[in-house]
Design brief:
Blueprint (H helix, E strand, L loop, with lengths): L2 E3 L5 E3 L6 H16 L5 H13 L14 E2 L14 H6 L12 H5 L9 E6 L5 E4 H6 L4 E8 L4 E11 H8 L7 E6 L19 E5 H5 L4 E6 L2 E2 L9 E3 L12 E7 L6 H5 L23 E4 L10 E2 L7 H4 L13
Parallel strand pairs: 3-6, 4-13, 7-14
Antiparallel strand pairs: 1-2, 4-5, 6-7, 7-10, 8-9, 8-13, 10-11, 10-12, 14-15
The structure holds ligand MTE and molybdenum atom.
The site of ligand MTE has 18 residues, from loops.
């Protein structure tokens, strides 16, 4: 896609498929500039140039999604969004290898159409749900979440999707369902990492029912105004913004409602290192490293300072109540 800005600084796309991204990033920056008191047409020019320079404009290779504004309090971070390039080339997706550059390189051969998600366990409406039906189940919203990896880096990503609770309510879990287990794609033919024993495949994650029903828990189909790139978990993934990144399973194929706490892939691999809750918490260290600070991807210049990691990744006002009275060191 070819993009240029006119004398007023407004972005024009040469192709018909202008992504909502350029428009929305400009809007965001305009709002930020207005708040800082800068006025006039120069603003628009600055915003569009900045959007291009920063690489915020995506290449338009994935199907555009048309998200509406988010309806969930706390779901929009005002921090600078991570560049599309960083968000799509620095990834964890061990099914495609353990290097950060592996997913972008190797995930492209993963077939994602047709795709369906099996709903099973303690639920009134189990069955196989086609991706097309899941996409239509509720209005897609844009949410700009921080994602904090347990390894000590973070990003800010504009996701597109809807609250997982929308799907959960549709399939009607039984009263006995206390947890939700998430199973992701594991195909040794197309995923080189699945042929290795770095983890016990498939990658399994889980949430307590109240966490799964929390409005911030996002079933994501896209990012930056487009369908998810494969390396980021196409065609659908979870995003749980107050937990370490590994709780956000990519390329979901199964959602199971259970009475007992699911055995997660990382929990089975290293139980003393990766607890079931894995809430972001600067006061609870990983046994091998501190969790007090983080490096924001894109800010790693010579003079870049480390950021202080926030309790529940900054979402304490929204989610803290779910853990009232819990010993967060014990339930790490
Ligand atoms: N299936 C699957 N999902 C996964 C992972 C994985 O290896 N396999 N890695 C997790 C980890 S450790 C992180 S930090 C996030 C990274 O998401 P991103 O690459 O879109 O930023 O995905 C999570 N989801
Ligand atoms: Mo992670």
């Amino acid at each position: 896609m070819l993009i240029k800005s006119d004398s007023q600084g407004f972005i024009h796309a040469a192709s018909s498929e202008i992504t909502s991204l350029s428009a929305y990033q400009s809007r965001r920056d305009l709002i930020r500039l207005m708040a800082s008191g800068v006025a006039g047409v120069a603003m628009a020019g600055w915003a569009s140039r900045e959007a291009l320079a920063q690489g915020w404009v995506s290449p338009g290779q994935n199907a555009p999604l048309k998200p509406s504004k988010t309806s969930v309090p706390g779901a929009v971070s005002m921090e600078k969004v991570t560049t599309y390039k960083d968000a799509t080339t620095y990834n964890n997706f061990y099914e495609f290898g353990t290097d950060k550059s592996d997913p972008a390189q190797h995930a492209q051969s993963m077939p994602i159409s047709p795709w369906s998600v099996e709903i099973e366990g303690l639920v009134k409406k189990p069955g196989r749900y086609a991706l097309e039906d899941l996409l239509k189940l509720s209005a897609q919203e844009e949410r700009i979440y921080r994602l904090r990896c347990v390894e000590g880096w973070s990003m800010v990503i504009p996701w597109v999707g809807y609250s997982l609770s929308e799907l959960i309510r549709k399939v009607e879990p039984l009263g006995s369902a206390k947890y939700v287990e998430f199973v992701t794609m594991a195909d040794p033919k197309t995923m080189p990492g699945v042929r290795s024993n770095v983890l016990d495949w498939p990658y399994v994650e889980g949430l307590r029912m109240d966490e799964a029903l929390h409005p911030l828990t996002l079933l994501a189909f896209g990012m930056y105004g487009e369908a998810l790139p494969k390396q980021n978990g196409a065609p659908l993934r979870l995003v749980v913004p107050w937990k370490y990144g590994f709780k956000s399973g990519k390329s979901l194929v199964k959602i199971r409602f259970t009475e007992s706490q699911p055995k997660t892939a990382w929990g089975r691999a290293a139980p003393s290192e990766y607890g079931f809750y894995s809430n972001v918490n600067p006061l609870v260290d990983h046994p091998r490293w501190s969790q007090a600070t983080e490096r924001r991807i894109g800010e790693d210049g010579l003079f870049a300072r480390k950021r202080k990691t926030l309790l529940f990744n900054g979402y304490e006002a929204q989610v803290g109540q779910m853990y009232a009275g819990m010993d967060l060191k014990k339930f790490f």
